[in-house]
Design brief:
By secondary structure, the chain is an all-alpha fold. It has one domain. It is 83% helix and 0% strand. It has 14 helices and no strands. The two termini are 17 Å apart. It is found in: Cell membrane. Keywords: Cell membrane, Membrane, Transmembrane, Transmembrane helix. Pfam families: Polysacc_synt_3.
Length: 434
Amino acid sequence: MNSFLNTNKKEILGKGIKVFFIRGIGYVFGFLFTWILANKYGPYTQGVFAIAFLFLSIGNMISKLGIETALVKWIANSVDISEKKAIFFKSLRVTFISSVLVGLIIFLCAPLIALMYDKPNVENSIKIAAIAIPFLSILDVSSNYFKGEKETTTFGIYFHLLKFLLPFLIILVFYLVSIQTIEAPIISYLLGLFLVSTTIFSHVIIRFKNKSVSLDKSFTNKFIILESYPMMISSAIVMIMGWSDVFVLGFYVSEENIGIYSTAIKLAAIVSFIYSAVATIVTPKIATYYKNKQQKELKETVRFSSKIIFLSSLPIFLLIFCFPELVLTIFGEEYIKGKTVLRILLIAQLTNAITGPVGPVFQMTGKQVKLQNFISIALVINLILSVVLVNFYSLEGVAVASALGMMTWNVLGALYLYHKMNIKTWVSFKSFSK
């Protein structure tokens, strides 16, 4: 048993380093995309892009119905290639149809959204974002197939690297040929997503070539939606909470300030860099261990993951928290005003790292509804405080509301898992010597 656990730790660490490396390269290109956007197009265009990207993210989240998360569990728990083929294509078909419908609705509502914000220049960017929704949905579902297969390197290449590399290359070309329209950033994302989604879909088709299709009759469209829907609600609330600050700020501040705030969000998210890499590895493991009632392996995997996440995230947090002006200056002098916002959001991200893989444990153990309840509480707190504090403290007030929302659901979720399932997700400082 100890030999198995040591092998498991080595796998988590080894694959985690690979995913971290791939994600790191991808983040560099994402960083360069933001740098070009901030320095060459300016905070105003960045603010327009942030609003358009908000609706791209919301549309993508709604259209996937949580299927991409459930797919990880379905693929991880299936051993037959014919069954996996049927599960994948049936899941993708439901997602694609949904994403086209959602994209069409957002496209048609773009003029109304621009009017609502009193920002007419965002209309075209929102329409372009709506067109990109099906491609992003294909990418998310297809990449999570590889995640369920525990092919984390392949998952990382598509989801963490190409997803950022291709939009960067396109916006770089736009800049070099002097295309300076405010729609250039979102067009870059659309073209990049089209290329990577086409590539990954072709990869999966080749994988399943000449394989028969075999699927239990109970795996209907209704089953897919009912099984994945709670995961969608949980993911949706987390995403809405993550983007609620940009949504609220759109009514109260200029596009320039939204651009500054969105840059702070991206920088703070670096702290959760390792979290995402480790979660990629352990999510299918949690699903398998829970299904097979391997409680010791499950708890040890979560405990080890929590330790890795915290030890890797703390140095990044300290570096950015102590020198926010130095980091923000990279994007331009006008971004320094976001240093307090950055520090507030960093504290929230550190809490996320300390509490460990709360979300994956809930989602892979069939406790999606409980997670949904905790996140719903956090969302209400977030929205109420955002609307109240933005009137008094502007960007900083919304940052405080966002941070408290994230901290609330992570802490409540971690406590529930410990008291109800005897799974400790948060980092145990006593275990560092083990």
